[in-house]
Automatic annotation (TrEMBL):
It comes from Paenibacillus mucilaginosus 3016. This is Phosphatase. It comes from the Bacteria. InterPro entries: PhoX, TAT_signal. Residues 485-504 are annotated as: Disordered. Transmembrane segments: none annotated. Keywords: Signal.
């Protein structure tokens, strides 16, 4: 039995084993309710829940742990399930298909209630429930807004490829545009309008949705927000690509709690840093530094950049060019390429932060690892750090490809895995079974030991774990069940096995059973 204890909840769970069942499996005593699945009506206007749910974040209504809004990311659209056919096989989509693909990405705001019977359900009469999609107009703010680097744009169309995200200190959410390239291309949209961190207020549709360009443009996985010792806002971010860097943004001004949502302005102006893991230093990504490096006679273009020095000199003219081309700027300045940095979380106890380096087959890191960073003097605003490999994927730990992370208040790190549906249950991935969710204590005698808490249905990954503040409910998104299906008449999964369904559906569940 594995014990968990926090100031609110304590209990035990019996870790489960690996599975190849087409079920969402949980330890004894835990159950789940499906609260929303692809295509479900979410409000009276008839908006529907998007495809491939990922990040979730719960906003209590009037402080309740049984009633609130849930924001859910929709990462990508699968042609077979969304269009009913492998559209685009000839490289062409109809205008209607493009519209549908864009509609089914972005995010959903849904209202959830836990009934007297203890079950969670969606309230489709909600006055808050709405969609934010690849068709919604929003604005660019910060260092690149209106610049040549984004085609002078201030208003842009939509958000898509929304992978993970984070909550702000002022009760809004940040949703992250990750693998945006394909959708931008097929929809004929300007790629510099995507790859940003996007802020939404779930309670207020009059709050203009904004893309925070000062946080850089790359394959954004997530945000993890905290405060430096001197009170500035710090945001840690992963760039989910092979050989990509770990970033943090530090605001210029200080956070003022009483200012509430007006603190959004802190994300407009500040310094973006990338991690140099050899020197243990945060490198400031400024136009002055990039131009100086490029002008240096001895400067050699890093092998990961496929451009000539003259082209780079022409490309980097202003700070807007730096934030729009963040990955290149970071490599030019000597930041360390890493093994697909996915989610990042700040430990609630000691200000260390954890990065899921999911894997990188370019150099044999097949099962990935979780890295723990120690900022100097435990100050999130520090310019120096140290790190260790906290837990490594593989047969011994029992997990492969860590992706999303979340903490409970006892200091346990919860991680979900993302072995790709094409490699799952094959070759060196055979022993892991389906993707799962694991609990790893970050202190105490079981530190670093992974215990399995959930096993995903076939072809699926578990994403976006998020606890209610009292930790009695854990929201979890089940993404891409049955993704290997090639014939709709023979789906490889039928999860969530709802009566009447004829295909698998990505869905969000509410897990309960945590004991007081
Ligand atoms: Fe969309 Fe990085 O996982
Ligand atoms: Ca992810
Ligand atoms: Ca997270
Ligand atoms: Ca992933």
């Amino acid at each position: 039995l594995f014990g968990y204890k926090s100031n609110k909840v304590s209990g035990f769970f019996e870790p489960i084993g690996h599975s190849k069942e087409d079920q969402l499996l949980l330890p004894k005593g835990f159950t789940y309710d499906v609260v929303a699945a692809y295509g479900d009506k979410i409000n009276e206007a008839g908006d529907t829940f998007g495809f491939n749910n990922d990040f979730t974040v719960f906003f209590p209504i009037e402080g309740s742990n049984n009633h609130g809004l849930l924001w859910v990311n929709h990462e990508y659209s699968s042609d077979l399930f969304v269009h009913g056919a492998p559209a685009g096989a000839d490289g062409k989509y109809t205008a209607e298909q493009i519209k549908k693909s864009l509609y089914n990405q972005g995010g959903s705001i849904i209202e959830l209630k836990r009934g007297e019977d203890g079950k969670w359900a969606m309230d489709t009469k909600s006055k808050y429930a709405r969609r934010v999609t690849g068709l919604t107009m929003m604005k660019l703010v910060g260092q690149a807004a209106g610049s040549n680097a984004v085609g002078s744009a201030v208003q842009v169309q939509g958000t898509f490829a929304n992978c993970s995200g984070g909550m702000t200190l002022w009760n809004t959410l940040l949703t992250c545009e990750e693998n945006f390239e394909e959708t931008a291309e097929l929809a004929g949209l300007n790629p510099t309008h995507y790859g940003w961190v996007v802020e939404v207020d779930p309670f207020d549709s009059s709050f203009e949705i904004r893309k925070h360009t000062s946080l850089g443009r790359f394959n954004h996985e997530n945000t993890a927000m905290g405060l430096s010792k001197d009170g500035r806002v710090v945001v840690y971010m992963g760039d989910d690509k092979k050989d990509a860097c770990v970033y943090k943004f530090v605001s210029k001004e200080k956070y003022i709690r009483e200012m509430g949502r007006a603190n959004t302005n802190l994300l407009y102006d500040g310094t973006l840093y990338a991690a140099d893991m050899k020197k243990g230093k945060w490198i400031a990504l400024t136009i002055e530094a990039v131009q100086k490096a490029l002008a240096d006679e001895k400067f050699k273009v890093p092998s990961l950049i496929k451009a000539k020095k003259e082209d780079l000199l022409a490309k980097f003219q202003t700070q807007a060019d730096v934030v729009v081309n963040t990955h290149e700027a970071a490599l030019i300045l000597g930041a360390t390429p890493t093994d697909r940095p996915e989610d990042i979380e700040i430990c609630p106890f000691d200000n260390t932060f954890f990065v899921a380096h999911t894997n990188n087959d370019n150099h044999g890191n097949i099962h990935g690892h979780i890295t723990r960073f120690f900022e100097k003097d435990s100050d999130l605003g520090a310019l120096e750090f140290d790190f260790e490999i906290f837990a490594a994927g593989g047969r011994q730990s029992g997990f492969s490809a860590p992706d999303n992370l979340t903490f409970d208040s006892a200091g346990n790190l919860w991680t979900v895995t993302d072995m790709s549906s094409s490699s799952m249950n094959k070759g060196v991935f055979t022993s892991f079974g389906n993707n799962g969710m694991f609990v790893i204590p970050t202190t105490g005698p079981n530190m670093g030991q992974a215990m399995q808490f959930a096993s995903a249905p076939l072809d699926a990954e578990l994403t976006g774990p998020w606890f209610t503040p009292d930790e009695t409910t854990l929201f979890l998104a089940v993404q891409h069940p049955g993704e290997n299906t090639t014939d709709l008449a023979k789906p490889t999964s039928m999860w969530p096995h709802r009566p009447g369904d004829t295909m698998p559906r990505p869905a969000v569940v509410a897990i309960t059973g945590f004991q007081f």
